[in-house]
Amino acid sequence: MKYFNPEIETLPFDKLRKLQNERLQKLVAYLYERVPFYKKRWEEAGVRPADIKSVQDLPKLPFTRKPHLRENYPFDLFAIPVKDTIRLHASSGTTGKPTVVGYSRKDIDTFSEVVARSLVASGCQPGMKLQNAYGYGLFTGGLGMHYGGELLGMTVIPVSGGMTERQLLLLQDFRPEVICCTPSYAQRLSEELAARGISPESLHVHTAILGAEPWTEGIRTQVEAGMGVRAVNIYGLSEIIGPGVSNEDYEERGTGSYIWEDHFFPEVVDKDTGEPLPEGAYGVLVFTTLTKEAMPLMRYWTNDITNIYYEHSHKRTHIKMGPIRGRSDDMLIIRGVNLFPTQVEDVIQDFDQLLPSYQLIVSRDGAMDRLAVKVEVKEGVLRAMGRPNLEQQTAVLPDALRNLHGALVKKIKERIGLTMAISLVEPGSIPRSEGGKLNRVLDLRKSKKE
Ligand code: DLL
């Protein structure tokens, strides 16, 4: 099977636009009638439903942002009675109340279909086993992948996140072809396999579907070698539906992820002005759900920074998005320079001696923000040097390590424009994923404020 839904996934551009425009017009009328929040905001903006005829009219409408979801907690953005929903999910924010999402039966069907499309794009086929190591629960990852896998006709193993012993046992004994989990947890599993002397060739798994947090080519290389798989990106967010908003094709890895744009219409806008940006430019990703019933969202500001573009020679007609550089609320501003943690990861991957395992530590010194970075050196590199003590001053480290440190400081300065206090540390000394999302930034400024 090359496509889960061949007709839609290869629909010519003009037909896709026509479908989107029809769906958008219906959606606008539906929300205006059913959700007071939208009616009020559109009236304030002086827009009537009849003014929205095509996706090109979207910029006339105001954005919906996370605080709007909180203000309408828990159910005030629902367009159908709560009793008509068949499932609720929620994402636990770092502050305050979670964000709630409701699904009608049709929404769950849509969710399952976009995940099934994503699984086929990842290289899955009916009959393969899927070890589902995303968390089950209010998080959309576990159940979202589960329903999509079943719809495709895979054999789903609902192990949930964490429990590394059990994951390894199942990988060896149930012999799944596919695993899905966060990229940081796939790093952890790769390392555990190596530590236990389990060779990737002894396993049956050939595909890892990774998402729910930003990751880069460096992690792809590590996981592909460490687990003996093709690592493929899956993206999504609960507010829009969950996993399966977009997905990479396994044969087109590294060229972006297809957005299932017959259901989720994307825009990329300037993060400061909200103005639409041209194809290919980086900005904030904004989605309009074209077909959801229970809690459709109009122009939802995801905070995720990326770009979108068409690749006309590729397998599907849908638009692609590049990797997420970071969330605009995770962006650090260090001495006036904007920085996403993935930019540091990008530099690290240029060094063969380093692991894509790092931590950024932000602190405040008077009015100045300071950034320190810890990066792990590969085990083999240290062994070849007779295991120097990395706790020592850089000046007394062996020449090769001192040069490595100097080269990293220089490259970071060149590429990012910042001098950072960098320390090279032992492999395994930086916290690993326990099964879910891993925070690579330790912000000591926050704990001081509280
Ligand atoms: O993380 C849904 C999901 C589950 C996606 C499993 C993929 C796999 P939330 O918990 O609501 O939903 O978090 C959504 O996670 O806005 C991004 O900032 C980030 N994110 C999700 N996928 C990726 C990805 C799920 N592939 C937020 N790359 C989003 C980078 C990602 N960031």
List the helices and strands and how they pair.
Blueprint: H1 6-9, H2 13-34, H3 36-44, H4 66-71, E1 87-91, E2 99-103, H5 105-122, E3 129-132, H6 140-152, E4 155-157, H7 164-173, E5 178-181, H8 183-195, E6 207-211, H9 217-227, E7 230-237, E8 242-248, E9 257-259, E10 264-269, E11 283-289, E12 300-306, E13 308-309, E14 320-321, E15 326-327, E16 332-334, E17 337-339, H10 341-348, E18 354-365, E19 368-377, H11 379-384, H12 399-416, E20 421-425, E21 441-443, H13 444-449
Parallel strand pairs: 3-4, 3-5, 5-6, 6-7, 18-21, 19-20
Antiparallel strand pairs: 1-2, 7-8, 8-9, 9-14, 10-11, 11-12, 12-15, 13-14, 16-17, 18-19
Bound molecules: 5'-O-[hydroxy(phenylacetyl)phosphoryl]adenosine (DLL).
Description:
The protein is of the alpha/beta class. It folds into two domains: 327 residues, Rossmann fold (3-Layer(aba) Sandwich); 118 residues, GMP Synthetase, Chain A, domain 3 (2-Layer Sandwich), CATH 3.30.300.30. Helix content is 32%, strand content 24%. It contains 13 helices and 21 strands. The strands form five sheets. Strands 4-3-5-6-7-8-9-14-13 form a nine-stranded mixed β-sheet, with helices on both faces. It has a four-stranded antiparallel β-sheet with strand order 10-11-12-15, with no helix packed on it. The chain has a four-stranded mixed β-sheet with strand order 20-19-18-21. The termini are far apart. The model has no long low-confidence stretch (mean pLDDT 95). The protein binds 5'-O-[hydroxy(phenylacetyl)phosphoryl]adenosine (DLL). The site of 5'-O-[hydroxy(phenylacetyl)phosphoryl]adenosine has 21 residues, from helix 6, strand 7, strand 8 and strand 12.
